[in-house]
Structure formats: C-alpha cells, structure tokens
Design a protein that fits this description.
single chain, alpha+beta, CBS-domain, four-stranded mixed sheet, three-stranded antiparallel sheet, 12 helices, 10 strands, elongated, binds zinc ion
C-alpha cells in the first residue's frame, strides 16, 4: 500500500505556489544530520555540538534555497514561453515545476530544460566566488567551508539533473532533441521516461552496492543518498508517465473510444411494450429511438415516471422522447472532453453517436465518459 499525502504549500513566489512533499522531510533531516555529525566535525575543529547542528541546519536551508532557485529558473522560462505554472514541488535533490500543458516547440522544451541546470551552475559560481573571498579572509572559518560545500553541491545538482532521463532536466533535453529529430512528441516523451526509469535502477543498484561493500565512517551516506535519489527518480518517472498519459488522453480520446452499442427502439413502440418487453432484458436508463434507420431521439425512463400506468398502452415513445438535437447527437470523432460538457448541458446525460451518413453507430452516457477520462 502506498500512502499519498498532499504536498504542503509553504510560499508563493512570483505568484507560483511553492510546495514541499512529505517525503522531503526525512531527507531534509538526514541531510542536516549527515552535515552536522559527520561532515562539519571532520573539517572544522573546536566547535560545540549545538554549533555544528546550527551550521548543519543553515547549510541545509541554503541548499534548499538553491534547489528552489533551480526550479524557479525552469518556471520563469516556461512562463516566458507562454505556459501557465501550476506549482513547484520541492525535494532536496531537485524539484518538479508543473505546467498546464507541454512546451509548444522542441526549442521551447529545450530552453525550459536547460534553465534549471544553468541556474544551478550560476549558484555554484557565486558560492565559488564567495568561497574565494572567505578563504582569503580566513581559510578555516565556517563560511569558507559552507561556501565550498554549497559551490560543490550546486555543481552536483546541475550535473545530476543533466542525466538524460525524464523527468530530470537532461531527460527533457533528450526529449526535445528526439522530438526535434523525429517529429513525434509522444514517442519522444515515452523514450525519455524509459531512460529516466533506467537511470533510477542504476542509481539504486550502485547505492546498494556501495552500502554492502562500505568500510569507513561517513561514506556510507553516499550509498544511502544514491538509493534515496534512485527511488525518488523512479517515483517521479512513474508520476510523469501518468501525468503525461492523462494529458494525452484528455486531448486524444474520442467519443468512439467510450461509446457502447445499445438496443434501439422505434417511435411507434408503446410505453407498455418498452417497460414489459425491452426493459427486463436491457437495464439502462435511456434508449436511442430509430425511425427508418435515422436517429430521431432518446427516451429516458426518468420521464416515464410521470405517466400513469393506465395510459402506458396508448402513449408511444415518440410522444415522450427528447427529439434529436445538436446536443443529443455526437460524432464518433468528437473529443471526449467536449462530449462531456455537451452531455452535462443536454438534460438527458446521454447522446446518440451518429456517423457522417447519419447512421447511429453507438450510444454514450456521461458516466462512461467520466470513467474513461479518469482511467
Ligand atoms: Zn531541473
């Protein structure tokens, strides 16, 4: 079983909600711990335990801000390309900026992908310059050590994110290239996601190997870290696959993909016949009405309730049907999302599916549409 908690919104920057996932919290804690207990005491002597922990926390927060800057780099470039940004979700070793749709061109996709690592390189450079200054002032001060660490981690962040597997930035860049080269966005996305899963498995395997063969002190964290990152990446690749597929389906599913075949009735059929002979065999709330192979309307059981029983033999389906109008007849190629809004407004919740020759080829209800769109 997998428990999924909603990410926590912690800020709004440039009108973009910034969230953290709960899975991020133990990683944040682990990072504070690794830096305070192992990294700092090894390089920085004569400090008290609370001071190490304080410095560990500061380092972790600065790393967190570096990741945030990286994601903002993506988001702002995406906005410049005309995309709307839903939110940014942060994990310590990367984040995910989500947009309302895909980049319009391979070039735009490439730019959005490169923007994050470029920002991390820039941060790395800034921390490197700060490091030069602080080393010049006093080589053994915490500032020198922290700027050194942050220059290095930002560099790692940039390089790691350039690994060519989606949803890592390198994967986006790979996709942009495949898309540009072969002209097929869907296939390019699928390949890039597969590459992402492959990289995740390699990371987990390398991390596990590292932990198993580990010999000395703090280095075990490198292995644990690789496993964490691999699991996260695998999860993110699966998540992007689902997200991408739902976007794709909403755009590409047609009425023909969700319609059913239904028994049809004639306009001359009486209510008595419908209820006593058709309904026991076909339990459905509505029926399409055909006259000389033409779709003429829909009878819904809902409407029959108001007809007294003694009148059933006289009233025909023609008398009570909803006559076929624009909202009651759909084309098989109508996008499913459009069909959903049409059926919501037509008061019947059902529609006949009619081809170019005017033949009824299927019958479709709101419930089936929603099921198909949600699957
Ligand atoms: Zn990125």
């Amino acid at each position: 079983m997998r428990i999924r908690l909603k990410p926590l919104t912690i800020a709004r920057i440039f009108d973009i909600p910034v969230k953290i996932s709960y899975g991020w919290m133990p990683i944040f804690g682990l990072h504070v711990y690794a830096v305070s207990v192992y990294y700092l005491p090894r390089h920085l002597h004569d400090f008290s335990t609370p001071e190490y922990w304080f410095l560990g926390l500061v380092t972790t927060i600065l790393l967190f801000l570096s990741v945030l800057g990286h994601e903002l780099g993506h988001a702002l470039f995406a906005r410049a390309e005309g995309l709307h940004i839903h939110d940014i979700t942060l994990h310590l070793f990367g984040g995910l900026a989500r947009f309302d749709r895909e980049a319009p061109t391979p070039i735009a996709d490439f730019k959005i992908g490169v923007a994050g690592p470029a920002t991390s390189f820039l941060y790395g450079l800034i921390f490197f310059l700060l490091n030069l200054v602080s080393v010049y002032i006093h080589p053994s001060r915490p500032a020198a050590l922290l700027t050194n660490y942050l220059a290095l981690t930002n560099l790692i962040l940039a390089v790691f994110n350039l690994l060519p597997g989606y949803p890592l930035d390198g994967g986006r860049i790979l996709r942009a290239w495949l898309w540009h080269r072969y002209g097929d966005f869907q296939a390019a996305t699928r390949w890039a996601i597969q590459a992402g899963r492959g990289i995740a498995y390699v990371l987990i395997a390398c991390g596990a190997f590292w932990v198993i063969t580990w010999k000395t002190g703090a280095d075990i964290f490198i292995g644990i870290w690789a496993i964490f990152v691999g699991v996260f990446l695998k999860d993110a690749a699966d998540g992007s696959f689902k997200y991408w597929r739902s976007l794709y389906e909403a755009e590409h599913l047609r009425v023909a993909d969700a319609m059913n075949q239904s028994v049809t009735i004639s306009p001359e059929m009486t209510i008595e016949e419908l209820i006593q002979t058709v309904l026991p065999q076909h339990r459905q709330p509505s029926f399409p009405v055909l006259h000389q192979h033409q779709f003429v309307g829909i009878v819904s059981l809902e409407r029959l309730r108001s007809i007294p029983r003694q009148r059933w033999p006289q009233v025909t389906t023609r008398d009570v049907m909803h006559p076929a109008s624009a909202g009651l007849a759909l084309h098989p190629q109508t996008p499913l999302s459009e069909a959903e809004s049409l059926l919501r407004d037509n008061n019947v919740g059902y529609a006949g599916v009619v081809d170019d020759q005017g033949r009824l080829v299927g019958f479709i209800g709101l419930l089936e549409i929603r099921k198909r769109l949600a699957s």
